[in-house]
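Hi R.,

As promised on Friday, here is the backbone we talked about, encoded as structure tokens. Could you run it through your design pipeline when you get a chance and send me back a sequence?
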């Protein structure tokens, strides 16, 4: 834990021999957080947190999770052609236009489960496409509008397939190499670069603290510019409102009036660096 995990001040682990013991242990932790007055922030990750089989068991054991996934499927499926949210066998998680909507639905549905257990966020923050789920959970976007943003934007990204690359580098951003864009600043010693495939691979080959991210496009860089007119057109009907829960934007690095989360905002979310470190 000391080597591979974030250096968080507080951490809790529940070891249980069965479901009842696990629920009891989790309930005790949640109760301690509530009694202490500490507020909960929900953080929604960007692309890369997916794994085969995710959400499979929750679909069976959690009616709340399954109900939320069904609601997401009702609005996502009409927007996609060759796969279905509720049919895991149709998922190709190597495709950006599949993995991003799937992750969105899973994140929104996990938040619904936490709410059903009494864990209500005092604020939300999202990394890159995770900010779409954050805005939805906060009440700034309806499920229908949020689904339109995540699906139509991911479909547009397929036009960039093969044109770029991204890499994560475990160094301070002050050590960012030349010839690429800084796509995200994730922490004091973690940032992401985006740009030309050859240049990104060259950086990874020469730095033991760098690793390729398994995508074939360069988001959060000038490579996105070619998509801007199309994205503004297809996302023009997105109707953002005032959120019930405060949203800390990773586009601006500060609290954000969510009535401004229109088409232009979601273009900026894809085009500009992710200011996750500032937001945290």
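Update: got your reply. Pasting your designed sequence below so it's all in one thread:
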């Amino acid at each position: 834990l000391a080597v591979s995990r974030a250096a968080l001040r507080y951490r809790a682990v529940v070891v249980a021999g069965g479901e009842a013991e696990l629920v009891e242990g989790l309930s005790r932790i949640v109760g301690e957080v509530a009694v202490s007055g500490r507020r909960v922030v929900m953080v929604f990750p960007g692309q890369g947190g997916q794994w085969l089989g995710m959400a499979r068991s929750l679909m069976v054991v959690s009616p709340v999770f399954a109900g939320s996934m069904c609601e997401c499927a009702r609005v996502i499926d009409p927007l996609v052609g060759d796969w279905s949210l509720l049919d895991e066998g149709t998922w190709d998680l190597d495709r950006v236009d599949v993995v991003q909507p799937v992750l969105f639905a899973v994140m929104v549905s996990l938040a619904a489960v936490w709410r059903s257990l009494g864990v209500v966020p005092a604020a939300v923050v999202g990394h890159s496409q995770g900010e779409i789920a954050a805005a939805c959970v906060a009440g700034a976007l309806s499920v229908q509008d949020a689904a339109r943003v995540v699906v139509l934007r991911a479909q547009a990204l397929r036009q960039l397939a093969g044109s770029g690359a991204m890499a994560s580098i475990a160094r301070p951003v002050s050590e960012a190499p030349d010839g690429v864009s800084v796509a995200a600043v994730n922490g004091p010693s973690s940032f992401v670069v985006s740009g030309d495939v050859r240049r990104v691979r060259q950086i990874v080959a020469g730095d033991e603290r760098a690793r390729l991210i398994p995508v074939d496009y360069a988001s959060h860089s000038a490579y996105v510019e070619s998509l801007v007119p199309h994205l503004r057109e297809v996302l023009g009907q997105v109707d953002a409102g005032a959120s019930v829960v405060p949203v800390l934007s990773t586009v601006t690095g500060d609290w954000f009036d969510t009535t401004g989360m229109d088409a232009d905002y979601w273009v900026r979310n894809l085009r500009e660096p992710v200011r996750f470190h500032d937001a945290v």
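One thing I noticed while checking it: The mean pLDDT is 93.

Thanks again,
M.
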